[in-house]
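Regression test attached.
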Amino acid sequence: MEPLTSFFAVSVVLLGIGIYGLTTKRNALRILFSIELIYNAANLNIIAFARLRDPPIVTGQVLVLFTIALAAMEASVGLAIIMLVSRLNVDIDLRKLNRLKG
Amino acid sequence: MPDPITQIIQLVTSTYFLEIVVFPGLISIAILGAFFTWFERKLTARVQLRIGPSYSSPAGGILQGFADIIKLLFKELIIPEGADRFFFIMSPVTALIIGAALLGLIPFAPGVQIANVEVGLPAFLAIVTLSPTLVLLAGWSANSKFPFIGGLRALFQQTAYEIPLWLSALGVVMITGTLNLTGIVQFQQNNGWLILPQALGALLFIVTSTAEMERLPFDLPEAESEIMMGWQAEYPGPLFMLVQGPAFIKLYAFAALFSTLYLGGYLGPAIIPPIVWFFLKTIVIIVAVMLFRSTFPRVRLDQLLRQGWTTLLTLSIVNIVIAYFIVVGVPAI
Amino acid sequence: MTDLTFLALATVTVASAILALEARDLVYGAAALGITFLGMAGLFFLLDASYVGAFQIAVYIGAVVVLILFTVMLVGPQLGEPPLELRRLSLLTALLVALLLGTAGSLTSAAAFPGPDNCGGGCDLTRLGTTLINQYGVPLEFLSLVLAAAVIGALTLAKADRKG
Amino acid sequence: MVSQGIPEETGYIIFLFAATLALVITLRLVISPRDPRPTPEKKAPFESGQIASGPGRTRFIIQYYPYILMFVVYDVIAMFLFAWALDLRALGASGTVPVLTFMVVALVPLAYALHLAGQRENW
């Protein structure tokens, strides 16, 4: 069995990639990808820490079920917004898109 | 010797490797695939009062499937102009791997199982959910109109029937209280086959899994008379063979899962060995699904989606209620 | 010792995460994101959280990636990738990523958390449902409200006629 | 059983991947014949014998979008229902009220979604 630190390391690297995408990308879909990566990094962290106890605590898994559900909902609403914006014939550059009111 | 290399050598020299290559694994899948291709054509022909394939060997053309494989192998690989080569080739390859991974989860007999995963049933269904992605990518990659329409149809259809499929399998989980496929079979050893308490669930399961397999009452993604085999339209010979592979493996795997969940898997009187029981049950299901093909006409896409989300979803919730009363209402069935 | 499976999964996950953000074609990006999720599910299986792993595949790849691909194929042709704008934020990001990678490096070199083993035989599923219902019943109800809001909100947003 | 290092499933998947990839490469390199100079007609997309016109990825089906959105949501619901079903014997009737509320609240939007999906001119 791999030591848990390696899993933490993967989680941290994914978080770094997600933050990188969040700050440098301007395409709304790429930003959505970054957010999903950050969610995944958090999930991996939670699962790995839940595994730290022996026997492992199941609460960590339940928590991750909730975050998976929330991430899926976030993605569905985010993609609906992207569809709406593309229908209004605006390009989905989030740095220019600042008037989504009315 | 470095550690990973030792691990790989150990893997290659184990009997487990043999299991992958020969029996539940690749070679047996290929032979069964060729056989059932012939069998399906023959059966459909007999239902329609035709003769069917008859030239390839004396015994009623039984080698037709192998002949087809050899023919398709020697065709030229043509990739259409403007196609996305990576996804065009990788989606059938990945679909084949996914299909084979499904079979790895099935307990064929006590101990004959490639991966006895603790969450076998959700793992199977989760792997099934991967296939709309691949079909969509395959249809998109060909840069042609029929494949794209077919890919989108497959996407809508398979996602719509996914939920009734999960919920009909949920009834089995409620009654057995385990997600492990071997555990489900062992439960049936003590309590009788689940087709009796879960008759509605079994019916729903076979209908929705026919839709997942894209077989005839629900074969809109590849409807040959309207969209020319749909997402498979642009595939040249050898790749077409690779595309047909997952279609058969899905049929085989779903039939095997049905007999595991509802018909007691490898259980049966000890006159014949468990694995024969398993194959008998699986073949009965395969023949039933093949008879659907020659019996029912194709439905329309909007009717299909509407029925999936209304009738089938309602029935699967009714099935959950039935399972709930079996477990809670009548203690210790 | 370094486990071969872990190494392969971690490499695939991280590489495809980078590809998801950097691939020029958004369809490739979405597919790479799917592979990231798959690798993550594999890591969950290694951590004996097989239930979460299975539903990671079902929900993330089966549903989210499909929805992303659908949207990409719908809006992609009229999209055109806007050029990267690295000037403004690149320094901050570079610093942040370096910091995180440094943390990762120091974590791996520090005294390792013990890797618990001998968890064979389904210790990952013990009392999952009971914990969910008994301890997290109220969050579950709130989650159902979130689900309802997401369906209604997303459909209202994506609807074509907007008179009201 | 294999060594402790590699879980069986992983070895299975790696092997299948390698085998199938090898098969495709073999097909491409060895068996399948090659045409050194394919004509434009050979590479043209199939349109029932007509000359292909326009880009290939245009016929988009958008009018069933609500269905795929519903799938995302009800997949999540199935995830929680499986966790409940797993422990149904232990929970007995005590888990009924939370799960029933959960299902009812989450199924109400289904009616709205079906209503919207019925109006195909909206999409």
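Expected vs. actual: identical. DSSP finds six helices and no strands in chain C.
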